[in-house]
Structure prediction request, 183 residues.
Amino acid sequence: MKRIILLSLLLTFLYAGYGQGYVTKNGYIRFYSDSPLEKIEAINRSVNAALDAGTGDFVFRVLMKSFVFEKALMQEHFNENYVESDKYPNATFLGKVTNISEVNVTKDGIYPVTVNGKLTIHGVTNQVSVKGTLEVKNSNVGGKATFTIALADYKINIPAAVVNNIASVIEITVDVPLEKFVK
Prediction:
């Protein structure tokens, strides 16, 4: 609940016209599991994100049921058995670009960044630090990063019957095309 309130506060801050706000409702997150028996990929193209380029505040909200799998049965198991989407409908990230002062949002270019914050999945929150890039192009900002998470860190249990089908560490790829927020 606290995370949703913080997301709402940041969006309210952007709506008020302060800072240099960038938002999207069409971000992309991909997760990939490469295990000995099976490769599993899911894609979500409905990621909400906001960046305040003045402060570096960066937030994401991901509806778990919006992940699409190649096989419908995988999607069903993901939502019902692993991430329990009815109980934990969203994943969130609340953080900050630590070196935002090195990003010139008025000059096209690709800027390496580090983002630190709290990632919440399956009702469990962990501190994360991710290296990525912010690309400024035509007055918009795109954020990209690839990192890994351990399922055990988020109390996502894999049944013994399929433990060799799902990797214990999942690769996450994030690509958010952020547009300048205009009131």
Summary: The two ends are 26 Å apart (CA to CA). The chain is about 15% helix and 50% strand. The helical segments are 2-15, 72-82. The chain has a mean pLDDT of 90.
